[in-house]
């Protein structure tokens, strides 16, 4: 393993990591507002990709129109999920809430496959696959595009959380009883966070399906998303961004070193190990608040 | 077990210049306290003066940063709470710490934990290994239930009984452990006069019939002067008076701490 | 009147501590046991070995998970991995010529030892973070099982399980295998019943409810968490081994993947946390659901004359399964056990319903 290819793994890893951040941001948005760990974020991403495909193929809309339609659809689906499934569980033990998001995960994943079937379909965003060189490093254009979009999304959230609605969401995440008592509609805020999270999932779905096609494996982004979200601190959007880069780089380097030794597929192992280490060493993550559950 | 077996002539509890800080706040500063066998020892002071913190220091929840705590002559500073419990220290909490999802009976049975040997083997082979032991402990618990007159709520869920009874159940759980030293953190908070009198009677009986030494934290001065043998007054984590209750409550520093400087100015 | 309580007086503590103080319950348990024992006589072997048997084994497994989740209150999203450890341990042990009786005990012990690793996560964190770290451990164990050829028997491999031999007799008949499952299920159930009335069970619940209150009465939380993880892993490991020995007859990594962990969790939660009979209901529900769904779909398809694509048919039951979990949590979060209890409470005073408190 020479230095150049190691650096190449690291650079592409960082870009992929930023795309993981997008999944993690969806988890963080919901966790911030309602302390619900959304284990259905992966299948929401997958559903979004299928919805987009449906608009693009069956309805024959041009890709940018299809993306807009998918964003609107997912916004509504996100709100509906909160309204129907999560709102009534408020105040229930966390195990019930976890089970609910797992139920949603199964339902959304199997539901999409019931409707659209399981064969992998391509998603073409028109990104050229001509090689892109950054100095001596060969960079994947699709990853680079995804990374740029992720950073743009992050910028949007920075601005959003300064807006009036954003401040309301911050108040809810800080202390929802207090927010409630000063007349903020906590329910609306939480519903909005689900809707936004579904929109983020749509964008993640678009980017990831342009890389690996549309199929069930999109739902497996959950493990990456959760790892990044926990590593960054479950309530920190900025943390999710940086943790994504960190995980991407670690994964890229570790897998290029480990894969030959372990006979491939060491990425998931690296993710799981990162998740466990984070929780054992620094459960509140890099930038999360300290007051998380400890023994 | 006779009293002598439980540690000879040493005081039941001794604190030697105990100090506890919480990032800047000095919650306890140089506390010296000796509680003799068979005493009911009062601990008073205004809100936030460190009474509960002292309790937590003794029982191992907040080990002191400086000083020593001795139980029956043995240094217990910094031992884990569950281990302190096995040495014969029982306590109740100011805000109640009952197991709400369990029945009154199970709560009190849990008080017997240190006398039982919970294990997987005994659970699997209950009929041969655990039944007689469980039954014996159940009998001991029924004694405590009799003693504190809790028969009527024995099978109720703790969640559903009134607060005065909950305080009594917590006392029962503590007594079920057959402790040599019992710490009661405001056992009469929020009780009416009649309930207070009941509780005071239970505490006296516990001392006389069950040989426990009691550390009693209370805001009701009438109770302290009525049943305590000696007492200690704290203010801002410092000792401001100790001795026989009649003397301590007459101490101008104690009066000042409780009522405020302006009122005693003469 | 059916479950009459009036007129039952206990004259000593051990009678009061009986498992089933109400005679009607004792009758019911007795009859159910008889029915279970006689099942091979009146039930056709297809039902016996493809429904009843896995139900019993899964119930035992679910009870093990319920021990950690419902009693000790510790999250465990990696239970299938623990079952898998037991399964592989038993298969390897029997293939190495160790008698099956000893092999399943070894399986349980291996699972308990490795499963206790989960307890060290529980020492550091609780709630959501414990759930996530156990989930991650499941991934690590999955990965290890499928990527270490010495365990899985090579990539994509299926490891054949030797026939069960008890005291030298080969158990191969459907009835024989069924009895193995039945005995294990009864053993685990009686352990869990005893747990409800012994110091160990109370200590576990104490740790679950309030750790500081547990400490003050002398309960060492960490020790009991460790005991809970080890015991539940033992039960899980043996259940996994028996599932392979009596039902699958061969072991592959997918049998114990993350999805199976979630399935076990669903059994416990749809059934009802912290209740024994609920685990029976939960396991039955989750196991039978796909089959019932499939027959319902094909019935509806012929009845209403529509035809579904092969993909749709393949994924529809799974989607319903997700929907049912969601529905349960919304409609009866306390699970099937709660529904059973409501019926039982009703019968306790029936026909004098007005006497209810
Ligand atoms: N865990 C903690 N962290 C930080 N400060 C604490 C902690 N526990 C207690 N304190 C501080 O220590 C001081 C003493 O508190 P403590 O609870 O011992 O008072 P108290 O005498 O029991 O009062 P009360 O009569 O209200 O029960 C207070 O200033 C309190 O804020
Ligand atoms: Mg206090």
Q: Which two protein chains have the largest interface (Cβ within 8 Å of the partner's Cβ), and how many residues from each?
A: A-C, 47 and 44 residues
Strand and helix order of chain A: HHHHEEHHHHHHH
Total DSSP E strands of chain C: 4
Low-confidence stretches of chain C: none
Structure explained in plain terms:
The complex is a heterotrimer of chains A (295), B (266) and C (357). Chain A contains 11 helices and 2 strands. With 295 residues, chain A is mostly helical. The longest helix of chain A is centred in the N-terminal third of the chain and has 32 residues, at 3-34. By secondary structure, chain B is an alpha/beta fold. Chain B folds into 2 domains: 1-88 and 179-266, Rossmann fold (3-Layer(aba) Sandwich); 100-177, no CATH class. Chain B has helices at residues 51-59, 81-86, 104-111, 120-124, 126-147, 163-176, 193-210, 221-227, 245-250, 252-259, 261-264; strands at residues 13-22, 25-35, 40-44, 66-71, 74-75, 89-91, 181-185, 213-217, 230-235, 238-243. In chain B, strands 6-7-8-3-9-10 form a 6-stranded mixed sheet, with helices on both faces. A 4-stranded antiparallel sheet of chain B has the order 2-1-4-5, covered by helices on one side. Chain B starts with 12 loop residues before the first strand and ends with a helix. Chain C has a single domain, classed as Orthogonal Bundle (ABC transporter involved in vitamin B12 uptake, BtuC), CATH 1.10.3470. In chain C, helix 3 crosses helix 14, helix 6 (117-124) packs antiparallel against helix 12 (221-248) and helix 14 (276-304) packs across helix 16 (336-349). By secondary structure, chain C is an all-alpha fold. Chain C has helices at residues 13-16, 23-42, 45-71, 79-95, 100-115, 117-124, 127-147, 149-152, 174-195, 199-209, 211-216, 221-248, 258-271, 276-304, 310-331, 336-349; strands at 159-160, 164-166, 169-171, 250-251. Classes of the chains: A mainly alpha (295), B alpha/beta (266), C mainly alpha (357). The B-C interface holds B 59-61, 80-83, 85-86, 90-91, 93, 97-102, 106, 109-114, 116-120, 122-124, 126, 130-131, 134-135, 137-139, 142, 173, 177 and C 12-14, 16-17, 191, 194-195, 197-203, 205-206, 209-210, 212-221, 224, 227, 231. The structure holds adenosine-5'-triphosphate and magnesium ion. Residues 22, 25, 27, 45, 47-53, 94 of chain B line the site of adenosine-5'-triphosphate.
